[in-house]
Amino acid sequence: MMVKDMSDKRLQILVSAVNKDAQKLPEAMNIESDAVIVNQLIGQDEKSCAEESEEYIFRDHAIKIMRRHEKGVGRSRNLALDNSDHEIIQFGDDDIVYDSGYAQKILAEFDAHPKADILLFNVKAQPGRETYWNEDFAKVTWKNYGRYPAYAICARRDKLISSGVRYSLLFGGGAPYMNGEDSLFLHDCLKAGLSVYRTDVAIGHELVSESTWFKGYTEKFFFDRGVLYHFLYGGMAFALGFRFLYKNRLTMCAEMGLFKCYRVLLSGIRHGRTIKE
């Protein structure tokens, strides 16, 4: 096994993957830094697909692959974070392709903004899944933190580790409740006092693929959104939940109706109050 002598340990990407040929990901994703790849072997036989780890060199970058049977994107991201050791860490997904030169762009942006603990970069989402596109460099606040996916997030590792912030095991793919883990992560970063900024620097794009969690505007969708709103907004969850549904009533509530959707969301908020992480 080749092990790289890493004197320059600045940038490390932490990739969460599911049932992939992990050795092919560095080339498929155009990774230009050292990496920790956690590949979850969901639904695969534990005897024929054993949990294991390996390290090798890809284009002069140290790649560590960890194959695990445990389920949940939060577990995956936390495991990768626990096994990281570089100055800057970057969260990634297995369906992102990075632009040539992206790694130097990330490092240059952190060097240009030493006050930033976390930077949120532009990654072009596939059509229909767009939630954000940064047009400037600006501070992220409680008013606008909720739009960003994990693959936008890069952080100074020592700041993140010392804050104690980790990904929730309750939300996201493979978890009990649907998406929202990235918003909750940034919520906790702000709560911990970390300085979060957005930047208009673009670093890659998302491949077209089917969503692993969205199955339509079902009762589970609204119930899980209620659970998430409890953790995000506390006592304001009822009001902000109604605002969210009213704003999207023509699309999200077209089948079930606004008030039924709201009743289901309320039940999710009440359920969230009983959960202890």
From TrEMBL:
The keyword Transmembrane helix applies. This is Glycosyl transferase GT2 family. It comes from the Bacteria. Signal peptide: none annotated. InterPro entries: Glyco_trans_2-like (IPR001173), Nucleotide-diphossugar_trans (IPR029044). Keywords: Membrane, Transferase, Transmembrane, Transmembrane helix. Pfam families: Glycos_transf_2. CDD domains: Glyco_tranf_GTA_type (cd00761). Residues 49-143 form the Glycosyltransferase 2-like domain. Gene3D superfamilies: Spore Coat Polysaccharide Biosynthesis Protein SpsA, Chain A (3.90.550.10). GO terms for molecular function: transferase activity. The chain crosses the membrane at residues 227-246.
